[in-house]
Amino acid sequence: MRKLPPLLLAAAAALMIAGCQGKPQRPACPKGQRCLEFGLASEPATLDSQRANTVTESWVIGDMMEGLTTDGPDASPVPGGATSWETSPDGLVWTFHLRPNARWSDGAPVTADDYVFGLQRLLDPKTASIYAYLAYVIKGAQAISEGKAPPASLGAKALDRYTVQLTLEHPAPYLLELTKHQSFYPAPRHAVAKYGDGWVAPGKYVSNGPYRLVSWNLGDHITLAKNRYFHDAGHVCLDRVDYFQTPDAIAAERRVQRGELDISNTFQSNRIDRLRKVMPGYVHTHTVLATSYLSFNTRDVRPFKDVRVRRALSESLDRDFMTAKLMRAGQRPAYAFVPPGTANYPFGPKTRWADASFPQRQIEAKALLAQAGFTPAHPLKFQLKTTNNSESLLLAEAIQADWRAIGVDASILQNDAPVAFAAFANRDFDVGTMAWYGDFNDPMTFLGLLKSDVGAQNYGDYKNAAYDALLGKADREPDAVRRGAILARAEQIMLDDEGIAPLFYTVGRALVNPRITGWVDNSENWHRSRWLCVR
Question: For residues 183 and 186, what is the distance between their CA atoms, to the nearest angstrom?
Fold first, then answer.
């Protein structure tokens, strides 16, 4: 065989590489089946319903598991594991009637006991669920979570094989939203008994929803296949869903453009104009119930115990620049925590300084820091922790620059999303950037996050007895208008305390190939694969 000269050999290799890169690298779909390739912004840390706490985990688990209610195409609650329900006149007792033909993906029947067991497991201190507080609406739940009462005392009972009864601590008009959240999903007692915490591994995982777990290649992708035992399997279009971990938003964008991915559940905001030009019909943006904010570690970082420091750091941020110049996808400056569009809420609370001009706020911020003992000779220094993606870094650098302008020295540390949120939960941070996507459409999903007994997800350990009391009063108020007014008073207290630093109201962003049908933009930003199809 004649050998090519080195230069020709290099050129040939380059052409081969270019040819490979030009061809979409898409997993083969079996003949006669429909497959969806989905890009997730980060990798899940777990697929355990009772331990999950990030949006990424909810995307995947919500395709495999189904609660008493579930997300409809527009994310509104529709019948799931339960076909019907009724409520007592006082709103305290809810009775759910299950589907008698429901099966787990291994063929075992799904019973009322599985739903009760799921809630007991959520509240078991050994599970250490970050979401246990969501179930505090059920009678006796908090005492169980705190290790003061046995699981059997929970106000969740299996009246018979196919009837679940929930007795509440107080009326909760949003309960049907809660029952579609992953923390309320049933747990397969038979699988947990056999495998313990290892039941969530491929080959052991059993699910009651439209899909079952086939494989999980860490750092690459998760494969789901249609669950033939699902009660509505005949109307599920997609046979297989592959979830690819794509933390690099620009790389994900290119994979969608090449046809390697059908969907990416995010894109870099400041590229929206370009994307609309080069990928017409792909770009989806929608106002969602979500607020981006900063949390201050008031438990461990002494300066942040001082409200003057928190106020200085919050009011010195140029939110108009962040949204109009940096993000550019429809985000709006936030001066409160509860986002517009949240049901049952009279908007009005805002930070004390919201109406001041940005130059005025910078002057006041410097004065507040000086009062707290931080001057050019003795500057405030700390670390700003954020997730490891390009958009988070852009935001962190803008925040860092605003703080530098008032004499604050903040260094930036990026972590992968699961690592960052584990650090936030463990209080391993000074200041953290985060966003809260409402778990249900009610102000309590935001305000309840800052209640003193919430635990890990109250990342900054905000505490105010008056705030807690108002939230408790709102729970006992049956009139929706009066309840909303009470919650607004509570939010104003928290904002006056600078309990968090709201940054902006975010928007849902996705790239969706036009050949995908069934995608419905919605305020809760859930798009279950069950409702999607490929043309």
Answer: 9
Cα–Cα dist 412/397, whole Å = 8
Closest to 242 in 3D by CA, of 259, 279, 217: 217
Helical H segments across 430-498, by residue range: 444-447, 465-475, 480-496
What CA–CA distance (Å, rounded) separates 219 from 235?
Answer: 32
Mention every residue, 6+ apart, whose C-beta is less than 8 A from residue 209.
62, 63, 64, 65, 66, 70, 227, 230, 530
| Cβ atoms of residues 477 and 329 within 8 Å | no
Per DSSP, the residues of 367-385 read: HHHHHTT-BTTB--EEEEE
What is the mean pLDDT, run by run of 10 residues, along the chain of 535 residues?
33 37 77 97 94 94 98 96 97 97 97 98 96 97 97 97 98 95 98 96 97 96 98 97 94 96 95 96 96 97 98 98 94 97 92 98 98 96 93 94 98 93 95 94 96 94 98 93 96 98 96 98 96 95
Backbone phi, psi, residue 334, to 5°:
-115, 130
CA distance 35 to 29: 6
